[in-house]
Amino acid sequence: MSRVPPAARLATLVILAVATFINNRLGLLPVVIVVLGIFLTIDGLLPRFLKFLLFVQLPMTVMLVAVWGWVAKAPPGMPMGSDPAAGVRFALLISLRLAVLGGAFQLIMLSIPSRLLPATLRGWGLRGEGLVVALGVFAVEPELKLRAEQILIARRARGLLGGSRWAGLKQLPRLLRPLFVWSIRSAVHRAEIWEQRAMLLRVQRLPTETIPFSGLAGGVSVALSLLWLAAAIAFRWLGLAGIR
Question: N or C, which end of the chain is more exposed by having fewer CB within 10 Å?
Fold first, then answer.
């Protein structure tokens, strides 16, 4: 996905999202997740996706099943307690949809190489201050991760932190305070740069020549997303097969 042109990348994400919401068959969604997993593996993003499934998707699935299968015991639009099995199926459908959307978002957005990020955002029509804001959004996560690691290393060097993961979790409240202070300082610093217009000038001077985008990769990406859209429409409206 790293060589997919900006327009094809954005179109793929939109088509995948639309197809996922159109689809109402449980049997199709695991297949799409497996296909996304293959592409995520190729781009080296599978560990992030697995963490998303384990720490975000799994607790959300348990909560949804508990609400619709054990509390409401029915899907929306039906009397409470009338069909617990349908309530569980509805919860699983919502959960699998979110898993597909999460995997698609990670594949489309996180596979953008940092050197191609300005060209990709420009290809999406961002210019000037909008481009600067978007680049800043992409820079937030690595900056926060770096600052958090620096804080943990400093506390460990002072003997205030053990070596176990549980010890690191216990330090989370003390970690948030310096991160909050740093975020305010960083925002003020960026505002000062904006006032001087220096950041905009730097972004506008970023090179755009010889961008190694591949039209073939973009065509394959859009074609696969259209295939998923066609399958979702067919199984929803024509009732070809699948589990309700």
Answer: C
Q: Judge whether residue 203 has pLDDT over 70.
A: no
Q: Encode pLDDT of 51-65 as tens digits.
A: 999 999 999 999 999
Of the candidates 27, 15, 87, the residue with the CA atom closest to the CA atom of residue 240:
27
Name the average pLDDT for the chain: 82
Which residues fall within 8 angstroms of residue 94, CB to CB, at 6 or more apart? 64
pTM value > 0.70: yes
The amino acid at 72? A
Q: Mind giving me the DSSP string for 124-159?
A: TT--HHHHHHHHHHHHHHHHHHHHHHHHHHHHHHTT
Cα–Cα dist 104/108, whole Å: 6
Beta carbons within 8 Å of 236's beta carbon, 6+ residues apart: 22, 23, 24, 25
162 phi, psi to nearest 5 deg: -75, 180
Q: Helix or strand or coil: residue 79?
A: coil
Q: Note the Cα 25 to chain centre separation in Å.
A: 23
What sign does the CA torsion over 202, 207, 208, 211 have? negative
Rounded Cα gap, residues 197 and 238, in angstroms: 56
Determine the Cα–Cα distance for residues 1 and 9; give it in Å rounded to an integer: 8
CB 13 within 8 A of CB 226: no
Determine the 3-state secondary structure of 197 from DSSP. Answer: coil
| CA angle, residues 100, 101, 107, in degrees to nearest 5 | 90
Report the distance separating Cα 188 and Cα 181, nearest Å. Answer: 11
